[in-house]
Amino acid sequence: MIYLDYSANTPADPRVAEAFLRASLDFPGNPNSKHPAGQAAANALSESRKHIADMLSVLPEELIFTSGATESNNLALLGSVAARRHVGRHIISTALEHPSVSACLSHLQENGYEIDLLPILSNGRIDLEALSSLLRKDTCLVALSAVDSELGTVQPLAEAAERIRRFPDCHFHVDATQAVGKTPVDFSVADSVSFAPHKFYGLTGSGVLYKKKGIPLLPQLHGGESDSPYRSGTPALAEIKALERALELALTEQVSRNAAVRAHNAYLRTAFSKEKKVSINSPADAVPHILNLSIAGNRGSAVQTSLAAADICISVKSACSSDALPSRAVFAVSRSRKNALASFRVSLSHLTTREELDALLSALAPLLHI
Ligand code: PLP
Questions:
Q1: How remote is the CA of residue 46 from the centroid of ligand 1, in Å?
Q2: DSSP annotation string for 174-221
Q3: Angle, to 10 degrees, between the axis of helix 237-252 and the axis of helix 14-26?
Q4: Backbone angles phi, psi at 103, to 5 degrees
Q5: What is the pLDDT of residues 176-192, one digit of tens each?
Q6: pLDDT for 336
Q7: What is the CA(322)–ligand 1 centre distance, in A?
């Protein structure tokens, strides 16, 4: 099997799996328990929290451990607007967001919130002038992705933050799930940032929400005491140890991993740019891990099916979306419904080989030359 869907999920690094196993065996206690086994687990948790915070240049108490980026995004969006009812019910976001943000916003819209989506420029970036003009006194939340999951566009977060800061009551949330571990993210520009380690060779079922100290947030799970007042439940120590290791490896190996991925991306871009029927939808300066393409006359879902028959895995829109609708992100940059319906995503890793890319090109050849 040839796996080219690394932006949906990555295989766990064996060193991460080892960290998980070791912590699972070494710490039987619940970190919330006051006995020695509980305290040993609590100390181990506090060490990991500190190390993760140091790696992200944030404070330990600013980290909330969750079950994944979907939970982190839901907590950030629902928890921040609930804490800012006095500000208003106006929210700004984009058509590039993952369903864990966009579906949450639809839920808020059904409950009386007004949502404005920022225009996307042809380079995939948000229109900053439009952001300035849409911000209002009653804007309680702006939610942007650092890197979107379909095109891989890197958004100008610092410039956006500068505009949002003119409205001190507005919460600024960043979904950095496709960015952390792959490209630098400055957490300090946002009030909250979400991510999950299964995107960088960590384990699925674990996530993080960074929430800046002093920023109000109402918890969305009701339950007992935990290591954070914002999220109830027994802290998942072994998952957190695995997350710590995955982040450590991603950061120390970032330069070499990215060099390999950039070379793969350049190889595919060179090959596809010679093909008349292919549109490369990802902007030239997108992250190299994500390459969004369309082949004229072929629905993305048909391309996916035909590659699956050759045992090659690629994705159509986000793994969590339905394929019946055109991609909103690709439509935003190409303004073509046909192109958006034809789009599919190849996502790359340092584990990818040149042979795998050649196999992809051979499997696509019949669609390119009819
Ligand atoms: N946000 C983005 C940008 C994503 O790409 C994903 C997953 O694909 C998520 C959020 C949801 O992450 P999780 O599967 O950890 O809930």
A1: 26
A2: EE-TTTTTTS---GGGSSEEEE-GGGTTS-TT-EEEEE-TT-----SS
A3: 150
A4: -70, -35
A5: 999 999 999 999 999 99
A6: 92
A7: 15
Query: What's the 28 CA to ligand 1 centre distance in angstroms?
Result: 30
Active site residues: 320
Q: Which residue(s) pair with 295 in the sheet?
A: 278
Residue 107 pLDDT > 60, yes or no? Answer: yes
Ligand 1, atom 5: closest residue by C-alpha? 149
Q: What is the pLDDT of residues 283-294, one digit of tens each?
A: 999 999 999 999
For the cut 70, the answer to whether the pLDDT of residue 237 exceeds it is: yes
Q: What is the pLDDT of residues 258-306, one digit of tens each?
A: 999 999 999 999 999 999 999 999 999 999 999 999 999 999 999 999 9
Contact 193, 172 (CB under 8 A): no
Q: Which residue has the tokens 């006095």?
A: 86
Q: Is the CB of residue 241 below 6 angstroms from any atom belonging to ligand 1?
A: no
Q: Which secondary-structure segment (H or E) carries 312? A: strand 312-313
The whole-number pLDDT of residue 306 equals: 96
The DSSP symbol for 299 reads -
Reported as a pLDDT band with limits 50, 70 and 90, residue 9 is very high
pTM: predicted TM-score of the whole model, two decimal places: 0.96
Rounded to whole angstroms, the Cα distance separating 354 from 335 reads: 33
CA–CA distances in Å: residue 110 to residues 136, 201, 302: 21, 37, 34
Ligand 1, atom 7: closest residue by C-alpha:
8
